[in-house]
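ok, trying the design again with the full structure, not the truncated one.
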C-alpha cells in the first residue's frame, strides 16, 4: 500500500479537526504526517482503502449516501482498525456513532468526501 491514500485521510482529518473541533484540539489530533505513528498511518490507509472500495463496488453510487451514513462508515472502519492495532483500545478509540462528539462525526463525513474527491 502506498502512503497516498493514508495521507488523504490524515489531511482530511486535520482539516476537519481544525474546522469542527470546539476550541484548541489536542496536539495529537493535528500531528503532521511526518510525525504520525506508524500504526495510525496504517489505519488511515486501511480506512481510505475501504471507502475507495465501497465507492468502486457501488459503481460510484455510494456518493449518494447521506453525510451521516458516510461518517458512520468511516467511524466503523476506524473502530475495526483500532481493534486490529490494540488489544485493549481506549474507549474513545472504539466509541459507537451515537457516542462520538459532533465535531468527530462531521470530520468523519469530511474524510469520506475527501476520499471521493481524490478518486475523481
Amino acid at each position: 500500500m502506498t502512503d497516498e491514500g493514508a495521507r488523504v485521510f490524515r489531511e482530511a482529518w486535520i482539516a476537519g479537526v481544525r474546522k469542527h473541533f470546539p476550541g484548541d484540539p489536542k496536539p495529537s489530533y493535528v500531528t503532521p504526517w511526518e510525525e504520525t505513528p506508524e500504526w495510525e498511518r496504517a489505519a488511515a490507509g486501511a480506512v481510505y482503502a475501504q471507502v475507495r472500495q465501497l465507492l468502486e463496488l457501488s459503481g460510484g453510487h455510494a456518493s449518494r449516501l447521506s453525510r451521516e451514513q458516510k461518517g458512520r462508515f468511516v467511524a466503523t472502519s476506524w473502530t475495526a482498525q483500532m481493534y486490529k492495532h490494540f488489544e485493549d483500545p481506549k474507549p474513545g478509540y472504539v466509541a459507537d456513532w451515537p457516542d462520538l462528539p459532533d465535531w468527530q462525526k462531521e470530520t468523519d463525513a469530511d474524510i469520506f468526501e475527501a476520499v471521493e474527491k481524490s478518486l475523481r
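Keeping the full-length input from now on. The two ends are 19 Å apart (CA to CA).
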